[in-house]
């Protein structure tokens, strides 16, 4: 519908109808206004499939939702590093929405994994904002290509489940910009989501839902978002303030209470009616975008989408260890599948994203088409304690086989929406089982089903480790694809696996604080921290193995010097030097040189996934613009590229640099400095212009010269040259009154006036 037509409709609505339009009709429906032909549309969770409830609606899925397809969850799909794959999944979800008449799906969930403890990390993509943003943009592209909207969530800095509805994330401006806003920024700009969902939490004391800065100034003003903002379910504190800040739709309904407050505020003059009109316009715009472009013939293709879920997960699985090339397995080998998850896989998480899968394909089921294996459950789900009987049976079949494949992972109650994890360990019964099996079987492989990193005390004892994450309803088939080599593994970790919880960047503060989470690690999140600190990890960000080998060469930068107004073209050749086709994730990191600002030693600035036949070679090309070199400068309140040398690294992962070249970047932006009596000499002298003025004015001071010379001679030996240099560097100008005989306040003020010109 045209803008004027929508505005015309709004002009015919009563104030009560308009206020009503700004909240849901129930849990999932928006309101209709029948007399004006405004239909009611439905929104549904998300993000990795449909959780659409029919009659009995409730918030967290206590009542059953319709049968649907559970695609791999966010933690898995991010490991694919494959934009095309995410787009394909998105397209399928979009079609399913069309078939079920759902206007908007509540996802992608794209919060940063600040800590591996966050209960909801399984839904999220990465610890890195570029990966989170690119994956979310690709999924959005796919969904919205079917004329169904997304809701990018949870905007913003919602990185823990503990007290998620009231907690205040205490984050500084630079960290917000470089990490938490950045995850949304790229996706919003690129993929133009129909809606964004604001999170429950506060930031630095203010509810996100009441923050004009985030919901309007940044989201709309800076990034050009033109859809509507909806609240997370119940994330409304002061409805009128929220509406003013830019939260257009309250979800779900609030029994008309908040609508009445809107009406009252307009009537008493504390809320401009235009604000209500504007929110209605944004909401109606999306409603009609959906209803006017319906695909009435769309069908929910259960079988086809199940196959896509299997294909997708096969490209998400990360091969973490493959000693003696234990994998892939041969059909003829005598293999034992051990562990509950081989038969009843853990493939999704609890809470609002929980899908009522119409079918689940386990590894035990999928392997039957390929090979004969034996099976034993080995442990009980959801508990820590060893079940001796189950364990003994598993040890027995492991002993009788040539290879034991243990399907381990985190039980449902170990990670979920609503609360955070307490530790990174697998249940004791599973760790004990793995150890016992390693005692009798030297060819042991562990397949993991988990939504976030776990510790692996048995890492050196097993020969293979396969990270399947929470891989969706077809995870069993995908795992079998990888185990038997039907698919060559190509997933890479989109998060670091630390050695211990104590090593994580926010260990000291995460989950602490009654109603405040202090983000004291700043921008040093995930690999930004581990690589800067040279902290040993279990598996680094970007890590993953393949059944083939790739060789890199011929890294080229199209220039060796540039300004921050130009873009750098980087190209590198990648060759498949093994004898199997395979996919590789090419990762480009930028490492700044010397800097006065605390910066991570490197940051991922571009990546691509390519496919190569055996012997095939491709040149992969990337464009790096100023943003790839920039940090957020809090004096400028803007991105700033420091002049200097930057290393462009091709990384096998965040730790392993394969090739590197250097480029000199010159900043064209000058930070205007105001010097005061408290400015230190060193800072002043580093400013070319100010330094020259100062130098010249001081050169007239004969006594100062004599003092400097006398000091350089250092007759007592108490002051060495370095100390002298440091003292001068860090000496505020006012101090010259004490140390430079003859210096006067007037003279200093004259100097300041001159350098500040
Ligand atoms: C979750 C959202 C979800 C909503 C609706 C909330 O509790 O945080 O992610 O979309 O419920 O189920």
Structure commentary:
It is a single chain. This protein is an alpha/beta fold. The protein folds into 4 domains: 17-46 and 81-291, TIM Barrel (Alpha-Beta Barrel), CATH 3.20.20.300; 304-495, Glycoside hydrolase family 3 C-terminal domain (Rossmann fold), CATH 3.40.50; 550-666, Immunoglobulin-like, CATH 2.60.40; 681-755, no CATH class. A hairpin with a 5-residue loop joins strand 26 (644-651) and strand 27 (657-666). The longest helix is centred in the N-terminal third of the chain and has 19 residues, at 173-191. Bound molecules: beta-D-glucopyranose (BGC). Beta-D-glucopyranose binds at residues 45-46, 59, 106, 153, 232-233, 352.
Short description:
The strands form seven sheets. The chain has a six-stranded mixed β-sheet with strand order 10-16-15-14-11-13. It has 757 residues and is an alpha/beta fold. It is globular and about 95 Å long.
Shape: globular
- Please, how many helices? 23
Strand arrangement, major sheet: 10-16-15-14-11-13
**CATH 2nd-level architecture of the largest domain:** Alpha-Beta Barrel
- Bound molecule kinds, no repeats: beta-D-glucopyranose
- The CATH homology group name of the largest domain: Glycoside hydrolase, family 3, N-terminal domain
Largest beta-sheet characterization: 6 strands, mixed
